[in-house]
Inverse folding.
DNA sequence: ACCTGAACACCGTTCAAGT
DNA sequence: ACCTGAACACCGTTCAAGT
């Protein structure tokens, strides 16, 4: 690992008080991760950027982990807001459902730092549950479950335990998002194209005919 | 981040030569990550565990990154082997295809350290291409593409660019694997149960009827 | 192809003492 | 609710000099 240098030209330091240091710390953490990646995130660096002593940070977050947890929590809040907005913007129903998938992937691409912290194995899932905002990671998932229940009531999608179906859908969009973030997608297939294809396949599957689906015939 | 202590009781150190130090380093790295997570991986620690000086490691890997890259490469090799074995074990065709999905998720759960390094954003995808084993990350993907081409030729799955379809399938299994590794699955829905459900949905989709799929009717 | 030992520029975290 | 300054126990990486 090459030693990272980030001795930024520290901003003019106002003496005492900072308005909202916790908030500023989260913002600075996100910015640092955006530009240099998670390993480059350093409490000392955050302090320097904010013109605040390193020890001051411990007034607001007990840990580096706690700071990362706050980033994750903010991410989950932004994510569920984005999902709700997409669903309502498309007027609910099946269009709303597909818009949520697209919005999910878009969120990951537009907030890669948040997303990486949320799902990169950096924050232990246990830590997340103890954040000030309760059940923050459940909210985004609940939006998805609600949408599925709605479509099931309209008989637009198959019956079955909505939470299990939601986990499946989550896996698809999460997979698309992660592959995109990791640069695994070839240039000919950008993330939104893959998500469009995925929406099509989520809807109708890949089997070639209903007969084949039910296994009533065994072609060839 | 709590300071990690790993001063293990260094093994009896044979003077000089180690048989296969590079291989031993990769093994030790995997073991460390397994037990203490990626952040706890330390070149100094690896050296200590192997009874070898820290500087000796640089004879074989230019970097900590390079060591992680070797872990990723080994993971991709193991993964494609597991996929091929699963496919052949199920006799190819659609059963083979679904067995691959199950095997993929199982691989991630059985080799979480490899998998996390492969897809955790730790190894830059560029680095992977310059490893001694060429196109190592492409192989596993190619196994999937081949399976899709086979099923398309038998008219068992829909036509279309096989590589795009393969990316979709990859996203699904990758998503299931990541959610499972991150502890996002509720205890009532273990990874293999979710993957079984996913196989069903991959096949037949979630839309309630062919008419609804084609959008020829607009129920309710 | 390995070793020792020293060094450099970093980390997270804690403490004592201030305003 | 912030500050300074010192300290402790770590890092990755490099270098010089050996066998």
């Amino acid at each position: 690992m090459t030693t990272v240098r980030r001795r930024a030209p520290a901003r003019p330091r106002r003496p005492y008080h900072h308005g909202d240091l916790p908030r500023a710390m989260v913002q600075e953490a996100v910015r640092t991760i955006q530009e240099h990646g998670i390993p480059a995130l350093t409490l000392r660096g955050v302090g320097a950027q904010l013109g605040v002593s390193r020890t001051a940070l411990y007034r607001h977050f007990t840990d580096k982990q706690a700071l990362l947890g706050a980033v994750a929590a903010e991410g989950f809040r932004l994510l569920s807001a984005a999902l709700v907005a997409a669903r309502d913007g498309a007027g609910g129903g099946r269009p709303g459902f597909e818009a949520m998938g697209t919005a999910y992937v878009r969120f990951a691409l537009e907030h890669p730092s948040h997303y990486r912290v949320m799902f990169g194995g950096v924050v232990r899932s246990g830590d997340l549950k103890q954040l000030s905002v309760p059940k923050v990671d459940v909210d985004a998932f609940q939006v998805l479950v609600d949408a599925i229940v709605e479509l099931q009531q309209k008989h637009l999608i198959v019956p079955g335990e909505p939470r299990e179906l939601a986990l499946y859908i989550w896996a698809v969009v999460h997979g698309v998002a992660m592959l995109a973030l990791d640069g695994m997608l070839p240039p000919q297939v950008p993330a939104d194209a893959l998500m469009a294809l995925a929406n099509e396949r989520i809807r109708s599957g890949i089997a070639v005919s209903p007969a084949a689906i039910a296994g009533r015939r065994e072609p060839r």
Residues 14-61 of chain B form a domain with the Arc Repressor Mutant, subunit A fold (CATH 1.10.10). The radius of gyration of chain B is 21 Å.
